[in-house]
Amino acid sequence: MDDWQKALANAVSDVDELLGLLDLSAKDVQSFTPKRFGLRVPRAFVAKMQPKNPNDPLLLQVLPQLDETMFAAGYSTDPLAENAQNPIKGLLHKYQNRALITLTGACAVHCRYCFRQHFDYQSNMPSAQVKAEILAYLAADEKINEVLLSGGDPLNVSNRRLAQWLDELAKIKHIKTIRIHTRLPVVLPSRVDNAFLDMLKNCPKHIVMVLHINHANEIDETFAQKCQALKQAGVVLLNQTVLLKGVNDDAKTLAALSHALFDAGIMPYYLHILDKVAGAAHFDVPMAQAVAIYWQLLARVSGYLVPKLVQELPNRPYKTPVDLHKFAAD
Ligand SMILES: *Cc1c(COP(=O)(O)O)cnc(C)c1O
Ligand code: SF4
């Protein structure tokens, strides 16, 4: 087992243990133990939380809260109607030039607002035969010039298996870019080990890594050093954020995030409106408020530090830019 795999296996999955590590008691929070999609958070991420703070923006992202169990109208288990855009199990092909492989259903961390928390990963785990089908599908469609490795978290997969995918994808001429959508380097920086860096360095395609960071406190020195190593390996680093009530729903917090990202060598890419997935209603920021925050962000930071505000609507051929002019700037 690699070191990062040991750390992964040693993630915190017990609410009381998490609270204990943070000097909090059960009375400080409204938590519970879910039957499915339970608490899961690597210790390296817990270490970035502030002790004794029940409203810590990192804690709120991972702590199962009783609010999850409340029914909310308009929230569903498949908010993006993705189950219908699944040509082969393990492949999502929603947009013309890019296709997404769900390499694994597993994640290192269980984000409580995750829009794929109800997705049927078990039947979407590519077996050897399905892998061949996926590669044949990608090879047959010359319009596909970019392949996304996603999940779950694709970096949950061993270096050996990742290398096999990269080798196979490298053989397909019309694929120019391989994009890795991952949160693992943030929650467990040791995942970015030398074998992984070498693999990326030696890949003949462009490599883009889209990280998922919601708050500046997620960025520490250890993680920033890994970002430097990734950049030296030729990787383009981008970030996507989900706008979350109680975590990052104000312009000051988002501006601090953009600056911290830039310091670490990462460019802001997307700011997502929360998908209406069952169990996540307590993170919702109403659209008018989201847009008001965004106008304030525009006024605060350089243009290249402003992520695109988008919303994923079912059956559109792109992620939809939010119409800022429907809501006045204040
Ligand atoms: C988000 C997403 C992509 C990538 O879209 P970009 O706008 O290029 O970031 C591709 N495929 C699927 C299924 C997606 O959900
Ligand atoms: S890392 Fe991404 S896919 Fe995994 S639980 Fe978090 S938001 Fe969902």
Report what the structure shows.
By secondary structure, this protein is of the alpha/beta class. It folds into two domains: 1-70, no CATH class; 81-321, Aldolase class I (TIM Barrel), CATH 3.20.20. It contains eleven helices and nine strands. It has a nine-stranded mixed β-sheet. Helix 10 (251-263) packs across helix 11 (287-300). The longest helix is centred in the C-terminal third of the chain and has 14 residues, at 287-300. It is globular, with a radius of gyration of 19 Å. The site of iron/sulfur cluster (SF4) has 11 residues, from loops. GO terms for molecular function: 4 iron, 4 sulfur cluster binding; isomerase activity; metal ion binding. It catalyses: L-lysine = D-beta-lysine. Residues 93-308 form the Radical SAM core domain.
Brief descriptors of the model:
330 residues, TIM Barrel, 9-stranded mixed beta sheet, 11 helices, globular, binds pyridoxal-5'-phosphate, binds iron/sulfur cluster, EpmB, iron-sulfur, metal ion binding, 4 iron, 4 sulfur cluster binding
Q: Please outline the major beta sheet.
A: 9 strands, mixed
End-to-end separation in angstroms reads 54 Å
Mean model confidence by pLDDT:
94
The coarse silhouette is globular
Structural class: alpha/beta
Unique ligands: pyridoxal-5'-phosphate, iron/sulfur cluster
Q: SSE order in H/E notation?
A: HHHHEEHEHEHHEHEHEHEE
Q: Kindly report the name of the CATH homologous superfamily of the largest domain.
A: Aldolase class I
**Rg of Cα set:** 19 Å
Q: Identify the strand order in the major beta sheet.
A: 1-2-3-4-5-6-7-8-9
> What count of structural domains?
2
